[in-house]
Protein 1
Amino acid sequence: MKNETNMSTTNYPSATPQGQAPKKDYRGLIIGLLAVGLLGTWGYLLWNNNKNEQTIMVKDSQIARVTDEKSEIQRSFDASLARLDSVTGANNQLQSKLSEATSDISKKKAEIRAILSKKNATAGELARAKELIGQLNDKIANLEQKVSELTAQNAQLNTDLTAEKGKTTQLTADLQTTTAAKAEADKKVDVASTFNASNITITPINEKKNGREKVTTTAKRVDKLVIGFDVDNRIVQSGSADIYVCITGPDGKPVTVESLGSGTFTTRDEGDKLYTAKVPIEYEAGKKKNVQFAWKQNSEFQRGNYKIEIYHNGFKIGEGVRELKKGGLFG
């Protein structure tokens, strides 16, 4: 029985060879390690993701800060430009005097604009823009000071000019008054310098063949009218003068013969007037001057009254009338 038992025991193969230790099962360990590794990977990924998000947030914050700084610089630059325009635009005289400063300002403006036009301007570039804006503001401050000085000078000049204009206006008024007074005085002197005529005579003369002359009142025998008068004036200086003699015939018409020197002159009260003859004289101051003038016309004298008018300086200074009659028994 014992042997059968041993034999029955030995009839079936054993999973474990006789005399060998059983093998260890590592699958659980591997699975555990894989799980740990997977968990670690997930943890790393989560940690890395959080870190990236933090980095992005930092970068976003930096970008926002840079953007804000750039905007602030742009606003500062715009304010500087507006200030500059206000200074230079209001004073053309300043622009012409400060060409060198204007050139330097233009360069700074160009460099600032170049920096601000960049989408990704660096902090160093923005710092440079700030520095340039500071320099620009210093330049503008100098311009403002010069404008203030020029404004004060202009104000003083305007004050002086106003004062001078006042003086000029007063001088003009005084001159006008003086001129008017002088004109009035000249007018008075001019009027006062007109001769006075006196002792007017009108003598009709008949000229004989033998050269003798005879006074006659018969119209058909009259060959000429001899007109005489005296002129004088207390204020007229020595010199030459023109006396105009106007003869009006019995028909009421002026006696004029152009070929004998008749013409037209201007009177003070009657406008233009025909004259028969112009008689030039030489006058000596303070003395009476006798004037003799003979009118011998190229036609016969008519019966009736001949009116003689004497003019000097546009004024009538005397007149007389002479009648020529019908002579003889028949005529």
Protein 2
Amino acid sequence: MSIHKEVYKRITVKTLTDMKSKNEKISMLTAYDYTMAQIVDGSGIDVILVGDSASNVMAGHETTLPITLDQMIYHASSVIRGVNRSLVVVDLPFGTYQSDSKEALRSAIRIMKESGAHSVKLEGGKEIKDSIKRIINAGIPVMGHLGLTPQSIYKFGTYTVRAKEEAEAAKLIQDAKMLEKVGCFAIVLEKIPAKLAATISKTLSIPVIGIGAGSEVDGQVLVLHDMLGMTKQFNPRFLRRYLSLYDDMSKAISQYSKDVKTKNFPNKEEQY
């Protein structure tokens, strides 16, 4: 039986709510540059996240903490220039929203004005409620992020699954309801038990996007470089590699080097 899928010319925050109400899953991937954004957008992905994971996959840092607001704006601007259809969400980096709601708003405004992005994402629950409210009140769409929050890695001390204990699970449900109430248009749930994620998705009317949160949520997100197999050292259970680009690219680059050294490249057809 074929499933009717509506063709959306441009994805907006309202589109995502409509997709949830129609039980249509939302696809989301990261991108950090113009070329990759063009490919991802042209492939029909609904949401592109300009993630602070750029700190890891683009800059080589161990955590997401070092990336700056200026650097996030640079990546977001590059992505926006390559996008025609996808909704672009940009992470507010560590230190730009946690302690001061006025600074949070200034940070979000800079991202929206200087990059042309469509929305921002913040990690956390009630601790950052004031920041989220202030940003939403200014007319900027906000995506929430609960569960494993990588910007708090030094607090947790580990990237292990979150909310396995009853108290943390209860707080997560409470925070998710709060994020919906203050006006977030969607929430990312990272690395939490599938059963808990399913409960939250059914409880909320806004879309819930999972990463390591099982299949019973409204959509999925992965880091592009991980999904394409450009990275090798990151191997969580939730990651499915659709290609092995690390090996393919290494082979191609080695062949190029060999061809140059043996004077096989360029040949007569490849010169003027």
